[in-house]
Amino acid sequence: MNVEYTGWLLDVYTDRKEGGIVLWFLGDQGERLFLRQPFPVVMYAAGDFSRLRALWHYLEKQPMQVSLERTERRSLFDPDMLTVMKIQVKKAFEQPRLFARIKQYFPELDYYDADIPIFPRFSAKYNVFPLTRCRVVTGTNGWIQEITPLGSRWDLDSEPPPLRILTIEPDIDPSHAQPAKLEIRYGRYHCRWEMKPEKPLLLCLESILRRYDPDLILTNWGDTWLISRLLEYSRQLNIPLSLNRDPDCEVIYKAQRSYYTYGTVVHRGQQIHLIGRWHIDALNAMMFGDYGLEGVFELARVSALPVQVAARNSPGSGITAMQNITALRKEILVPYHKQQTERYKTAFDLIGIDKGGLVYQPLIGLFPDVAEIDFISMYPSIMRRHNISPETVGNQHLNAQFVRDLGLFVNQDQPGLVPETLAPLLDKRITLKQRLLELHPWDCRYKPYKAQSAALKWLLVVCFGYTGYKNAKFGKIEAHEAITAYAREVLLRAKEAAEVLGFTVLHMYVDGLWIQKPGACNVADFQPVLDEILERTGLPIALDGIYKWVAFLPSRQDNRVPVANRYFGVFQNGEIKIRGIEARREDTPQFIVQTQMEILKLLSKAPTADSLPSLLPDITQLLRRRLDEIQKGSLNIEQFLVRQKLSQALNEYRVPSPAARAAKQLEAEGKLIHIGQHVRLLYVRGEQRVIAWDLSLPPDPATLDVIRYKRDLLRAASTLLGPLGVNEDTLRNWLFSNASYAAPPGILPKTNPNCRYFDVSSG
Amino acid sequence: MGRTLVTATQIILDEQREFGDFYRALRRADQQAFEELFSHARKHTAPISMASHALPFEAVLLAMLLEECKKSNQLSQQLDELGKVVDKLHQLVDEFTSSA
After folding, report:
1. Following CA atoms A151, A153, A154, A155 in sequence, which dihedral angle do they give, to the nearest 10 degrees?
2. Which of A372, A373, A362 is nearest to A723 (CA)?
């Protein structure tokens, strides 16, 4: 007899026992169902006919069940149909292994749909996505007969599944010291359990796993330390630990790695994936601090990546999965290797087109009543509006747009694969942002909406970035160049629109403008500019906020030279915004971050920019207090910790950085630091100059390099006070020589009537 | 990520370095003026980049000229204003002496 269930799809993976796929399903009655379904996997091969025939013979001799067929399919870049060999593998788990073998024996052939993970394949076929609602009908043998979606991945208010979450956190960072206790939380329960002896700990965890049966185990340092340690105890003591829900499978380990991305080196720790339930290490997950679990779930939902993968992989794999789904549904072949090469370009061509986004240097100084206006998801909006996709750029059709900078055409006949993929994503994010504007931050929907919007933002960002990524299957550098060419044009039009209406453009940064006009200080005063920009560019632009005042800062090396994206300001609602200053940098000690933020909070109290100097006495008082605390050693030593990244291997440093020196000390104790990993250190006096925080012996607070920390504190303070005319020397005079405020701030004549103060040193 | 060209900021720094010998031979006061000219150019990296000029130093020079032109305009404006004040003062002195 058939049984019908409704609920949420949690996970899909290949079934090694029966050959199909396994689905984990959370039913409306709270039941966790383990369901099976047959799911043959299809891939294609194309190329020289004699080699295809050889492949045919080879496959016929394989022990696994494979059905072969000669057919025709559409490739993205070719208007004609392509004759291909369809290879259908009955047991899904055998397909990756078979593909690895045939590409080794027949490397000269082109392969399609060969390396798509199982979940996106499943979602493309049944339109059912992770964590979305669906209905399943199972037969007498418990196998799925039918599965139908009850919701869409684009729904805004879909009911979240009532997940059971078990949280386990060691009481201290294991790289710093041996944790003594585990903090365990599940449902309404909360306990702390000793790490030693191990036996009661394992028995406790096993009983929780069996009784509570969590869907998600959320840990700190679970990937890099905790889970492997628990499994080791379990093996040594021969006590079972049912971390996996599926007893037929082993826990999956993925090795740590370091790689270069966007000009910086990144280290990803080892990963541990569970089968049948999820494990997420909050400290090894991608941008978990940005969007949390809600964001991870949203990423999984829209991209059809398993939750554990979505949590750890870059958004790039999410957008690739989404493009694969679009291609599978449109029956377009997904190439195994990227097949598009860059068109021939002369050096002159390159000078004209390889320019990226437009970044203007700001006018240095402190400005009152400034509006920040941003294009809403500028690059994706351009991609959709102009139909920019790898297959649409470069071919002259009847209905094609000419991109002046590139001398290329963009075809408008058919919707491109990339714009088609991102359009619903863009719509969902714009709707979420609109709702966020209407909601009060205390509304229970505010937080999840914000997390979802942040997760979608990253997908949209890489959707543009991947068009220029050399390994992206649907990437083409000309598409990337076309997008940036349009973006530069759009920003220039926006500048012209603002200037026509009498505004001064203080700064422009890729998709945002900071504008000012004497007398304009309300939302209504800036509406005409927004309307004019929309009219001239066709792209939506929004007012991010109006600053009471904003200060654009000069370069540290030369205070006559402006620096893009280094500013701080206070919005009319009191909200503080900072970019590029010490408090935003990850290598700034906590007490300096706190002091900078405290100074900003004091400054934010000034009703207008003109009244800012009246706060200087309060600020110097605060700084005196802070300097005193450093001198007396009354601050917690952790407040002095500096976190720096090891950017290359230790033996590659000609002059070792502080991070390299600290890493060397750790290496001497047998603690290896990999490229891209962060090292925590303290600046100390003496020959060593730095001491690693994670050494076995605790550092002596008396050795701290107090002079250096004081200097850094004053430097951070002068970053904020510079625009008021108080440079580091003046500040030192005030603080150490008890000089009075005889030289008032802003003593220099104003060269720009709309700018309030100038750095005294800039003359 | 596919970038093949140096940035406008880098172009300016490279050009400044190219003139290292020229710089050395300048007197100290002239060296300061030289540095100021290059800091003028750094304010206009976006237009230099947009110009896509095969000889980028021409765009760098134009950016320097721009700032100098702005400065001289500003000075003429201040001179005009000062001239008006001086005229007014002359007028007042004349009125005062004639009335005395």
Report:
1. 40
2. A362
DSSP-assigned beta bridge partners for residue A12: A23
What is the spatial distance between Cα A266 and Cα B76, in angstroms, rounded to a whole number? 54
Q: What confidence tens digit (pLDDT) does each residue in A247-280 have?
A: 888 899 988 888 777 677 888 889 999 999 999 9
Has residue A723 got a pLDDT over 80?
yes
B77 Cβ under 8 Å from any chain A Cβ: no
By percentage, how much of chain A surpasses pLDDT 70? 96
Tell me the three state secondary structure of residue A464: helix
Task: Report angle CA A450, A456, A459 to the nearest 5 degrees.
Answer: 150
Quick check: A67 and A52 in contact, CB under 8 A?
A: no
Written as six digits, the tokens of A488 are 């530069």
B78 touches chain A (CB under 8 A): no
Residue A742 has pLDDT above 80, yes or no: no
- CA–CA dist A619, A468 (Å, integer): 47
**Residue from A68, A67, A70 nearest A84 by CA:** A70
Residues of A in contact with B36 (CB under 8 A): 560
Partners of residue A375 on adjacent β-strands: A541
Q: Is the CB of B87 inside 8 Å of chain A's CB atoms?
A: no
Q: Decide if A89 contacts A20 (C-beta within 8 A).
A: no
The string of pLDDT tens digits covering residues A610-629 is 899 889 999 999 999 999 99
* Cβ contact B46–A468 (<8 Å): no
pLDDT at A738: 67
Evaluated on CA atoms A45, A51, A52, A55, the torsion sign reads negative
Residue pair A423/A399 in contact (Cβ under 8 Å)? The answer is: no
CB atoms within 10 A of CB A95: 25
Please say whether the beta carbons of A119 and A305 come within 8 A: yes
How far apart (Å, rounded) are the C-alpha atoms in residues B54 and B58? 9
- H/E stretch holding A216 reads strand A216-219
Q: Does A358 touch chain B (CB under 8 A)?
A: yes
Using the beta-carbon criterion (under 8 Å), do A351 and B44 form an inter-chain contact?
Answer: no
For tokens 């422009």, the residue is A508
**Interface predicted TM-score (ipTM) of this complex, two decimals:** 0.73
Distance from CA of B34 to the nearest CA of A (A): 13
In 10 A of CB A275, how many CB atoms?
A: 21
**Does residue A197 have a cis peptide bond before it, meaning omega lies within 30 degrees of 0?**
yes
- The distance from CA A396 to its chain's CA centroid, rounded to whole angstroms, is 36
Find the radius of gyration of the CA atoms of chain A.
30
> How many Å apart are CA A449 and CA A155, to the nearest integer?
12
Do the Cβ atoms of A562 and A552 come closer than 8 Å? Answer: yes
Token output for A326 = 């679009």
Domain boundary assignment for chain B: 8-99
Q: What is the pLDDT of residues A296-331, one digit of tens each?
A: 999 999 999 999 999 998 888 899 999 999 999 999
Neighbours of A504 (CB within 10 A): 17
On the CB side of A581, CA atoms within 13 Å amount to 29
Q: Which of A361, A514, A750 to mutate to probe the B interface, most B CBs <10 Å?
A: A361
Quick one: closest CA in B to A361, which residue?
B43
Q: Examine the pLDDT at A761 and tell me if it is beyond 60.
A: no
Closest CA of chain A from B23, distance in Å: 17
Q: Within an 8 Å CB–CB cutoff, is residue B73 touching chain A?
A: no
Please give the structure tokens belonging to residue A749.
């004549």
Distance (Å, whole) CA A554 – CA A362: 9
Q: How far is CA A522 from CA A515, A531, A620, in A?
A: 13, 15, 33
**DSSP string for residues in A315-359:** HHHHHHHHHHHHHHHTTB--BSS----PPP--HHHHHHHTT-S-B
Beta-carbon contacts of residue A79 (< 8 Å; ≥ 6 apart): none
Give the integer Cα–Cα distance in Å for A679 and A174: 14
Q: How many CB atoms lie within 10 A of CB A424?
A: 14
